Amino acid sequence: MNKASGNGGHRPRYITPEGEQALREELQFLWKEKRPEVTQAVREAAALGDRSENAEYIYGKKQLREIDRRVRFLTKRLEEVTVVDRLPDDQEKVFFGAWVTIEDENGEEQTYRLVGADEFDLDRGYLSINSPMARALIGKRLDDEVSVRTPEGFKSVWITGIRYASASQDK
């Protein structure tokens, strides 16, 4: 195991600048707003007396544990991630952060952005870099045929578009 990389020998955990910002904002919200709010609610519930049957107190303590667990996770994750904030030298190939349009055998097109595991959101078209589809697309070029293993077997898709966008063009 390679301890020097800081992540226990695992491959680097890449993240887009937007993804890192979202994690930082969540951490800030939990620590500066949510936790103090819940702490105050627990304090008020505790003042009401018998804690063993006090639902607000019990729920508040549970909420605090969940917030603290998430804060620890986010803090550790932000130390582990590698922010990819520059465009690749060869923008004709698919790399991390690319928007890739693919077409399947039925002529149906879908566009995905290859993002870090912490960012994936299929509703937004954000595909985890660790997914089989993303791994199959990495390093490929426009018009390349890509074979991807799916639960139904292998599926062929063709790359019909590759673009790299700044955050302002991301929508």
UniProtKB/TrEMBL annotation:
Residues annotated as domain Transcription elongation factor GreA/GreB N-terminal: 14-83
Domain Transcription elongation factor GreA/GreB C-terminal: 91-164
Molecular function terms, GO-annotated: translation elongation factor activity
Gene3D superfamilies, sorted: Transcription elongation factor, GreA/GreB, C-terminal domain, Transcription elongation factor, GreA/GreB, N-terminal domain
Keywords: DNA-binding, Elongation factor, Protein biosynthesis, Transcription, Transcription regulation
Pfam family, one: GreA_GreB
InterPro entries per the UniProt record, alphabetical: GreA/GreB_C_sf, TF_GreA/GreB_CS, Tscrpt_elong_fac_GreA/B, Tscrpt_elong_fac_GreA/B_C, Tscrpt_elong_fac_GreA/B_fam, Tscrpt_elong_fac_GreA/B_N, Tscrpt_elong_fac_GreA/B_N_sf, Tscrpt_elong_fac_GreB
Top-level taxonomic group: Bacteria
Family per record: Belongs to the GreA/GreB family. GreB subfamily.
PANTHER family in alphabetical order: TRANSCRIPTION ELONGATION FACTOR GREA, TRANSCRIPTION ELONGATION FACTOR GREB
Function: Necessary for efficient RNA polymerase transcription elongation past template-encoded arresting sites. The arresting sites in DNA have the property of trapping a certain fraction of elongating RNA polymerases that pass through, resulting in locked ternary complexes. Cleavage of the nascent transcript by cleavage factors such as GreA or GreB allows the resumption of elongation from the new 3'terminus. GreB releases sequences of up to 9 nucleotides in length.
Record's protein name: Transcription elongation factor GreB
Protein species of origin: Marinobacter koreensis
Gene this chain is encoded by: greB
